[in-house]
Specification:
Blueprint: H1 7-20, H2 23-34, E1 38-43, E2 46-51, H3 56-66, H4 69-82, E3 89-94, H5 100-105, E4 116-121, H6 124-137, E5 140-143, E6 145-146, E7 151-158, E8 165-166, E9 174-185, E10 195-200, H7 206-211, H8 214-218, E11 222-227, H9 233-242, E12 245-248, E13 263-267
Parallel strand pairs: 3-4, 3-10, 4-5, 6-9, 10-11
Antiparallel strand pairs: 1-2, 7-8, 7-9, 11-13, 12-13
Helix pairs in contact: 3-4
Length: 275
């Protein structure tokens, strides 16, 4: 019995034969769909000049990115965090959700000696999927809500997993009566060896996470902190500046300014884990 070729593969073969291998047809159809000529498109947080015909793949990608947060925002986070990695380093994914950053960054263990990834997630339901991904990709997952002090915390939840936050910060995106209780833990109560790089995405709990990590900052272990949106801005900025961090806006790495949505803080004089 003849094996059936999957539809996706048949589609790719059709495109290859009737489009990619017929350049004049490809050019004509691309011109009809996208036009031609120079234009600016936004990719990786940058306005880039392309020709809609000659660089049609980039043009399509820019249109997809406008409507997709993974392509629009999170690829830049991954790039900026990856710049800070090195040997003798632990990447700490705080508010990891299902661990998309940890899954990718865990590969750095093949490049750097004594490199580790530790991912924290408060929601027991989301943690169940995170733990599966941790086993698949070789990192450590911990079900805990990082906070300024140890103890139970009431969380509000919504229709999607990425918006869970303490009940006191619940908003219109959260569903009344839907939530969970998580164990709050100080980050400096965990054994996190070596140089530390933090990615923090905790829906308004950023300052509490930093306060709970003071012991690690006091010991000079923290090399970089990426905050993907954050509240309590004056207090957060003062905390990091007080520990000798230079503050940058992640998109183009100018000095941090109030219009920036996110923040990359880099410890002055960091040696990238080589000492």
């Amino acid at each position: 019995m003849k094996k059936r070729v999957p539809f996706a593969l048949r589609r790719l073969r059709f495109i290859q034969r009737n489009f990619n291998e017929r350049p004049r047809v490809r050019e004509m159809l691309t011109r009809l769909l996208y036009g031609s000529g120079d234009r600016d498109v936004r990719m990786f947080g940058r306005e880039v000049r392309i020709d809609a015909l000659r660089e049609s793949g980039y043009y399509r990608a820019s249109k997809l990115a406008r409507a997709n947060s993974l392509l629009r925002d999170e690829t830049l986070v991954l790039q900026r965090v990856s710049m800070m990695l090195g040997p003798n380093t632990t990447f700490v994914d705080i508010g990891a959700n299902i661990g998309i950053f940890s899954c990718v960054i865990a590969d750095a263990a093949r490049l750097f000696d004594n490199f580790r990834v530790v991912a924290f997630e408060a929601s027991p339901d989301t943690y169940r999927r995170l733990s599966i991904n941790a086993e698949r990709f070789g990192f450590t997952a911990i079900n805990a809500a990082l906070a300024a002090s140890d103890g139970p915390l009431d969380f509000a939840d919504g229709a999607v997993s990425g918006i869970a936050t303490v009940s006191a910060k619940a908003g219109v995106a959260h569903i009344p009566g839907r939530g969970f209780v998580a164990q709050g833990r100080r980050l400096d109560g965990f054994d996190l060896p070596g140089r530390l790089v933090f990615k923090i995405d905790v829906e308004g709990m950023e300052l509490a996470v930093l306060e709970g990590a003071r012991g690690l900052f006091d010991h000079g272990q923290v090399a970089a902190v990426y905050l993907d949106e954050f509240t309590d801005r004056p207090a957060v900025l003062a905390f990091l500046a007080g520990y000798g961090f230079d503050l940058y806006a992640p998109t183009r790495l100018p000095k941090y300014h109030d219009r920036a949505r996110a923040l990359l803080a880099v410890r002055r004089g960091d040696t990238r884990g080589t000492s």
